[in-house]
Design a protein that fits this description.
With about 220 residues, the chain is α+β, with helices and mostly antiparallel strands. About 15% of the residues lie in helices and about 5% in strands. It is built from three helices and seven strands; from the N terminus they run H-E-E-H-E-E-E-E-E-H. The strands form three sheets. Strands 2-6-7 form a three-stranded antiparallel sheet. It is elongated, with a radius of gyration of 19 Å. About 30% of the residues are buried.
C-alpha cells in the first residue's frame, strides 16, 4: 500500500471510531456516565469503548476485538413453538452471546478480558446505579435484564429459511446488503444483533432501524 493510501485508510478508521464513540457516549451503553446510564455505571472509569472492545488480545471467537468476558457453555432455555417451522439451535450464536454476556445477568458488566493498561482479565471500575448488584451484574429489577430463560423473548439461534414457511417469511436474496439477508447474523441466523445495534440508539431500544408501522418486523415477516 502506498503512503497516501495508508494515510487515507488510517483517517477513515479514525473517523469511523469517532463516529461510533460519539453515538455510544450519549446512550445507556456508556457505562462511564451516571448521566447517560444512571442505572448502570461504574465509578472511577473514563474509557467508553473498553467494556466491549480492546485493541489487543481480543476474543478469538466473538470477533470485533471483543473484550467482555463470555461463558459460551452457559445453558439457555431456547424459544420453542409448535408453529415455528425454522430450526432453532440448542444455544445462541455469537450475534446473541455478545449481548447476553451482560444481559443474562450471569457475568458482571465490568468483567473484562483485557483491562485498560495492564494486560489481563479483571473488573474495571466500581458498580453504581440501581440496575447492578454489588458485583456489577444486571439484576432482575432492571429492564435490561434478559436472564437465561429465553422462552419469552423473540427467538434467537434461528437458522433463517423462508422455504420452511414461504407464506409467512421473506425469502433471502443471496445479496448481503439486501433484506432480509443484511439482518442475519453471520449471514445465517436470527440473533440479537439482527434487530439491535449496541452502538446506536437513534431509534430507541438500540434498534437497527425504525420499527414504525412494524417496518423492521416486516423485513422478515410477511404477516
Amino acid at each position: 500500500m502506498s503512503k497516501h493510501g495508508l494515510t487515507a485508510c488510517l483517517v477513515f478508521i479514525a473517523i469511523s471510531v469517532s463516529a461510533v464513540l460519539a453515538g455510544v457516549s450519549q446512550t445507556k451503553h456508556n457505562f462511564t456516565s451516571a448521566t447517560y446510564s444512571p442505572n448502570a455505571y461504574f465509578l472511577g472509569t473514563n474509557q467508553v469503548c473498553v467494556y466491549c472492545h480492546t485493541p489487543h488480545n481480543g476474543s478469538l471467537t466473538m470477533g470485533a476485538l471483543y473484550n467482555h468476558q463470555t461463558n459460551e457453555s452457559q445453558p439457555y432455555q431456547m424459544y420453542s413453538s409448535s408453529t415455528l417451522d425454522m430450526t432453532i439451535s440448542a444455544a445462541p450464536h455469537k450475534g446473541s452471546l455478545v449481548c447476553l454476556s451482560c444481559h443474562d445477568g450471569t457475568i458482571a458488566v465490568n468483567s473484562l478480558s483485557n483491562l485498560p493498561g495492564p494486560q489481563g482479565a479483571g473488573n474495571y471500575g466500581s458498580p453504581g446505579g440501581s440496575a447492578l448488584d454489588a458485583n456489577g451484574r444486571l439484576t432482575v429489577a432492571s429492564d435490561a435484564f434478559v436472564g437465561t430463560d429465553l422462552r419469552d423473548d423473540h427467538p434467537v439461534g434461528v437458522l433463517y429459511d423462508a422455504s420452511r414457511d414461504p407464506s409467512g417469511f421473506v425469502a433471502k436474496t443471496g445479496i448481503a446488503t439486501s433484506y432480509p439477508d443484511k439482518l442475519l447474523s453471520e449471514g445465517l441466523y436470527v440473533e440479537c444483533n439482527s434487530c439491535h445495534d449496541p452502538h446506536d440508539n437513534t431509534y430507541s431500544n438500540f434498534l437497527v432501524e425504525s420499527n414504525a408501522t412494524s417496518q423492521l418486523c416486516m423485513r422478515c415477516h410477511t404477516k
